[in-house]
Amino acid sequence: MPTEPVISVRDLRRDFLVPVRDAGLNAAVASIFRRKTRAVAAVDGVSFEITPGEVVGFLGPNGAGKTTTLKMLCGVLHPTGGEVRVLGFTPAQRRHEFLKRITLVMGNRSQLQWDLPVEDSFELNRAIYQTPWAEYRRTRNELVELLQIGDLVRKPVRNLSLGERMKAEIAGSLLHRPAVLFLDEPTLGLDVVMQKRIRSFIREYVASGQATVLLTSHYMADVEALCKRVILIDGGRIVFDRPLAELGDQLAIYKEVDVTLEHAADLSEYGQVVKAESGRIRVRIPRAEITTATAHLLAHHPVIDLSISDPPIDDLIETIFAGPVHQ
Fold first, then answer.
1. Structural domain tally of the chain?
2. CB within 8 Å of 266: residues ≥ 6 apart
3. CA distance 185 to 166
4. Would you say residue 315 lies in a domain?
5. Which of 194, 184, 183, 185 is nearest to 161 (CA)?
6. Are the beta carbons of 84 and 72 closer than 8 angstroms?
């Protein structure tokens, strides 16, 4: 029997009216009395489904429509057109039963009270979601332990570092045990160690509670660590919606060969040299030529070490947005 999707989006659209006027003083004065606007489609006919327990990467360049889509899925923004259902609810209705089962974490926004200790913000969230005290204490203790913030909860939020505040933000967002997590840049601005801890925590939370996650991030390490499927959006439209593993298969037109030589040499005849330092050279070679090129390279150069790998996913996504790709 088919699994009912947790998130279902059909031809979703959101337009914004933006002011338009010519340059110059006369145009500025005229705009005071007769303002001209035009409609801009931030989200333009987006459709997708997400099933229970999925962790899906929602990726795209700045201004692609990622955050606007997340806000419509949470009910913060009303769609201009189309249909969206989350957990069987229409988000724009903002029903209490719906809000108790979702959370939105934004890396550049704070839901904690700036001048109060973290613990006080946690208890405020408990009251808002009407969580029973026994359940709240159990969840709070579990989150504090998993995120290692036991020493932070008594500090005012303004005294926390960015990484500490982000961990506290995530804990506060999950106190009501949401079934759906909308994560908008949850590791934004964090150092590498803190990013790994946040990823590890999200992975454990999903595994333990069968939560469903839609994640936006500019850190591809987040996506590679957490997501099996990616949705790419550009100009408000979906340009790719497939398993992460297929991204390289579909779009990587070259392999990267790292070679360590006994003596420096020019390897540009094999492909594009993208890095060369201390005898170690990285060459991008067309996928179709990789076997012939590496065999020739090994036969004609003093190779100490050689390895072949797919290009970084960041580069693949840049390739997608450099030119249109159709599903």
1. 2
2. 273
3. 11
4. no
5. 194
6. yes
- How many residues does this entry show for the chain? 327
The tokens for 289 are 């030529």
pLDDT tens digits, one per residue of 119-177 = 999 999 999 999 999 999 999 998 898 888 888 999 998 998 888 888 898 899 999 99
Q: What is each CA distance from 31 to 17, 40, 191, 283, in whole angstroms?
A: 15, 19, 46, 56
Pair 258, 134 in one domain: no
Q: What is the enclosing helix (H) or strand (E) of 215?
A: strand 212-216
Task: Reply yes or no on whether the pLDDT at 310 is more than 70.
Answer: yes
Predicted TM-score (pTM) of this structure: 0.78
Pair of tokens at residue 4:
């009912």
Tell whether 79 and 112 lie within a shared domain: yes
Query: Looking at residue 55, which CATH number applies to its domain?
Result: 3.40.50.300
Amino acid of residue 120: D
Measured between alpha carbons, how far is residue 206 from residues 2, 231, 325 in Å? 21, 19, 31
Are the C-beta atoms of 200 and 170 separated by less than 8 Å? Answer: no
CA torsion 224-228-232-236 (nearest 10°) is: -120
Asked if 15 and 101 sit in the same domain, the reply is yes
270, 133: one domain:
no
Domain range enclosing 16: 7-248
Q: How far is CA 314 from CA 155, 225, 327, in A?
A: 38, 14, 19
- Whether the CB-CB separation of 257 and 267 falls below 8 Å is answered with no
Query: CA 109 from chain center: how many Å?
Result: 15
Q: Is residue 323 part of a domain?
A: no
Is the domain of 303 the same as that of 172? no
pLDDT, tens digit, for every residue of 49-69? 999 999 999 998 888 899 999
Does one domain contain both 285 and 205? no
2 belongs to a structural domain = no
The CA R_g of the chain, rounded to the nearest whole Å, is: 24
- Same structural domain for residues 155 and 267? no
Whole-angstrom CA distances from 148 to 3, 137, 168, 212, 314 are 36, 16, 10, 23, 31
91 and 145, same domain (yes or no)? yes
Letter for the amino acid at 274?
V
